Amino acid sequence: xxxxxxxxxxxxxxxxIPELIAAGxxxxxxxxxxxxxxxxxxxxxxxxxxxxxxxxxxxxxxADSDGVIxxxxxxxxxxxxxxxxxAAAELPIMLAYGEALAGTGKPLVAAGSIGSPGNLGRPATExxxxxxxxxxxxxxxxxxxxxxxxxxxLAERGxxxxxxxxxxxxxxxxxxxxxxxxxxxLAQEKGFVGYPGDGANLWNAVHIRDAASxxxxxxxxxxxxxxxxxxxxxxxxxxxxAEAIGSRLGLxxxxxxxxxxMLPGYFGFLANIVTQNYPASNLITRRxxxxxxxxxxxxADLNNGHYFSAS
Length: 311
Ligand SMILES: NC(=O)c1ccc[n+]([C@@H]2O[C@H](COP(=O)([O-])OP(=O)(O)OC[C@H]3O[C@@H](n4cnc5c(N)ncnc54)[C@H](OP(=O)(O)O)[C@@H]3O)[C@@H](O)[C@H]2O)c1
Prior knowledge:
Layout: E1 2-6, H1 13-22, E2 26-31, H2 34-42, E3 46-49, H3 55-63, E4 67-70, H4 78-101, E5 107-113, H5 145-153, E6 160-166, E7 169-171, H6 179-190, E8 193-196, E9 202-207, H7 208-221, E10 226-230, E11 233-237, H8 238-249, E12 253-256, H9 262-267, H10 271-274, H11 283-289, H12 298-301
Parallel strand pairs: 1-2, 1-4, 2-3, 4-5, 5-6, 6-10, 7-9, 8-12
Antiparallel strand pairs: 9-11
């Protein structure tokens, strides 16, 4: 297939492009700068110069392709407009792809979040829809759910659309800015590794190379209108992650009281994320697409020489 990929210079995209090429696909990657163009080209893809705010350009690129994988995101909008601005910029992009691909049956695979179905009191499955994210949820991750809902909804317009919900922690030897990197930096700054309350809340993780193979499988054979769960390790108590980081840094893991003022004191803007419980299953993804995560688990990957090289 001729695949148009956005975000090819980012953490996930830089694994997705080689994954697609190794499987025999021809990839064109979006690049908004000379640096990005060189990086995309070095991965073996053709370059299409452009920016996420050029919707006509994205439509044209989608129409010229046999399928689209979209993992770019406007993280530059976070400081000024927060997650609301990121979601508001993302929705028209998905609708533009929808216009370009309507009635073609071509695949569109976009990134989503494992937290989007909310805490159901049981492991969330691929059949659990994203919670509605209206105005009352402004400022929370939930506002971005509208993007997942829109992508999945494009199935009704003849697009083979799906969303890969990525685990809370996506790890690899090239992870530069993910949650793990941020938790390690916080621990180094504070002198201990904090966990919220009793740290029993469950997080999940995926090696980004495994996530990349899931994006490829969803593109190649995923049915329309589905969610896929990119989870390698499900249900890791947050406290275990903190203890594992602490053992590598030689720092104690310490409970931060689950108090609305104390949590931000340690975790800053991550406070309302670290307290969440995200039990989720990947069974439907594995059965439907034949996906199996084979890369190192989160705790094994902490020893890959990347995360603690400076300590
Ligand atoms: N645990 C996780 O990591 C996790 C969990 C859930 C969901 N997600 C989602 O998964 C997606 C992929 O995340 P990631 O970590 O792979 O992203 P990333 O490493 O932050 O990369 C972002 C990409 O977007 C591109 N980009 C940003 N603004 C652009 C613009 N205006 N025009 C064109 N390209 C632009 C960047 O290109 P430049 O090189 O030009 O900057 C880069 O390639 C995101 O939507 C993220 O929110 C991640």
